[in-house]
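Risk mitigation, structural track. In case the binding assays with S-adenosylmethionine fail to produce interpretable data, a predicted complex structure has been prepared as a fallback.
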Amino acid sequence: MRVSEGGVEVEVPEQADEGIGDEVFFNPVQELNRDLTVAALRAYRDREERAEYYLDAMAASGIRGVRAAADGWNATLADIDPDAVELCERNLERNDLDGEVVQRDANALMHEEVFDVVDIDPFGTPIPFADAAFANTRDLVCVTATDTAPLCGAHFHSGVRKYSAVPRNTDYHAEMGVRVLLSAMARTAARYDAGVTPILTHATSHYVRTYLELDHSASDANAAIDELGHVYHCEDCLYREHDFGLVADPIETCPECGSERTLTAGPLWLGPAHDADFVAAVREELDDSMGTESKVERLLDTLEGELHEPTHYDQHRLCKEWGRAAPAMDEFLGDLRDAGYETSRTHYGGTTFKTPATVEAIREATRDS
Ligand SMILES: C[S@@+](CC[C@H](N)C(=O)[O-])C[C@H]1O[C@@H](n2cnc3c(N)ncnc32)[C@H](O)[C@@H]1O
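Fallback model:
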């Protein structure tokens, strides 16, 4: 079967079914992820002009690497599966593009060769590939994680094992996943004296995707570790607070409602998960060859304005808790702003928002919404 995406045409298996069975993997639903990758790579190359060598470390059909090659990157497409490698070769050829194709274990390749940008897009968790990626990549590591249940705390023990952090299943579960992943990436990079700066991160349907810029010094690694800390959460009234540092200082009782049903999550990445200027630059790189252009544009618009508070609220969840009907979001957020609190919508969902205000302050400020 032939698929056209972003100005290239690739062959993918008829029975492509998200990696189940023997077929080479291809998931059409990930087009948004790939469109955003191409735009982010363009924006990144404008910012870091020397960036030239891109590794699609788990290439499958090669569609991502082929699109990068079509965009002028010196691309290497690698996969451990010989059928995938054959398909990558055919797909580069079909588009009359140069590019290196190698059948290689991604870890071995990343340890042996240095790339400016490395893309890790595995089945499930990226953890088995993180050490090699951070040990050797020069500028940017792009990571997809599809194991959202462990990341969000829905599969608690699996999350603890994989990410060496305590994830908690809260009303901001997708953001919990983002911050558990970023924490694990920052700690892994720090082992190689590299500091990470997340310049773009999104949680979309069943995956988290992040773009981590690297600075290679012990002090940069320390600065990234300084962005880690814990979130303390009340399961009854949804109060939450956070503090920075690697040693947790849990709250025994909720300072707002007195409940003892409190949770501690961490170490989480509490710093910014995106750079608003970079997000705006990525938006400028979208073009109409991208099938998901308008969706990506909407996502980037929301992300650009998203506050850096480490957790978000869901208006419907709060209103349910308070026994109120949920008013229109604009009115609700307007009342919160009128009461003096900064607010933003978030990309985590249409009824989600961020604010530094506490649950009680939100409740008071929106009483008449
Ligand atoms: C989710 S797919 C990649 C999808 C692809 N990047 C895309 O955008 O369509 C994961 C790929 O990783 C490959 N893979 C699994 N383990 C690997 C390893 N250790 N080294 C290299 N590739 C590996 C699989 O063969 C599979 O093709």
